[in-house]
Amino acid sequence: MNNPKDNNSDIEIxxxxxxxxxxxxxxxxxxxxxxxxxxxxxxxxxxxxKLNKEVADDIRKVVQEEFNxxxxxxxxxxxxxxxxxxxxxxMLNPPKKYKQMIKIKHALRNSIAIICLIVAGFILNIVYNxxxxxxxxxxxxxxxKNRLESEYSEISNISLTLEQQEEVxxxxxxxxxxxxxxxxxxxxxxYHSKNSDTVGYLEIxxxxxxxxxxxxxxxxxxxxxxxxxxxxxxxxxxxxxxNAFPNLSQNTIIYGHNLKGTDIMFGxxxxxxxxxxxxxxxxxxxKFNIKDHEYRWQVFSIYTTTxxxxxxxxxxxxxxxxxxxxxxxxMSVRFFDVSxxxxxxxxxxxxxxxxxxxxxxxxxxxx
Length: 367
Description:
The structure is a single chain. The protein contains eight helices and ten strands. The chain is α+β, with helices and mostly antiparallel strands. It has two domains: 12-92, no CATH class; 182-365, Beta Barrel (Sortase, Chain: A), CATH 2.40.260.10. The chain has an eight-stranded mixed sheet. The chain has a two-stranded antiparallel ribbon with strand order 1-2. A hairpin with a 2-residue loop joins strand 1 and strand 2 (18-21). Helix 1 runs parallel beside helix 3. The longest helix has 57 residues, at 96-152.
């Protein structure tokens, strides 16, 4: 005998081989189980079949909240121990919309998991490359800084008096970091042989800034390329492409990254903001040497500013230069008793301080 279906019912309950039509156990729209429809007999019967996990979870919740019967609880416990399979829902068949919701839920959950894995992998790759770039940059820095020391170590094979060896060693100490000395031009030649973009050497006392400075045809190349022109997020220390060498512009501008968590490139330029650095007047004299010239520069302004402040013009009219130098002296974190004339030449060092600010140091060419 065929049992006519109620138009409002999508649920078929199988009982002893007969199809019994009753009101749906699961609301088609709210996906809430009706406890008053879910009879004790049905709950006991559910313990004998494999259920879709989401449906069974809903059933457990209803039973726990609505029924307090030891036999039912025992049956429920048996349900909880069943391995659920969405392919075998023999006793309780939820509405189509409920099934679709479950499929969507599964698909969404799997998609989110896959997306999370992809994003996590992408982030890990970025972090890995970032630290690999820093590691490589440190190796380059050490290689360049140790070059003259290893080169001059050959003096041990030369017969020299003790006094002569002391004189040569003093020369090494003065030149191996790009400082002034008899062999500054030899040092420049070495760096230039490794990279023809080399225009000078910069050194600031009581920081880790001691680098050959390069220059490209634009200000983008050395943001993402190292001294050997390999791709690296650490970049290198570079002069503004508009600056003139060996004849200096009125404002020679040098840029470098401030890499978070490291001291390479301009990572220690922020030390110039500290009282410890500022209180030592010897620190106020920095070196920026170019081919055939050994220059000293005296600091007259250090400040942080926003990117929209223009401090990177390389040439000025006399009136504009006076106005500019007066303004940046007034912005300094410390007053430096240094006068600036209209015909002076200045050095500007620029790096990031935060995501929205720049750290800038200005120095005047004194000899």
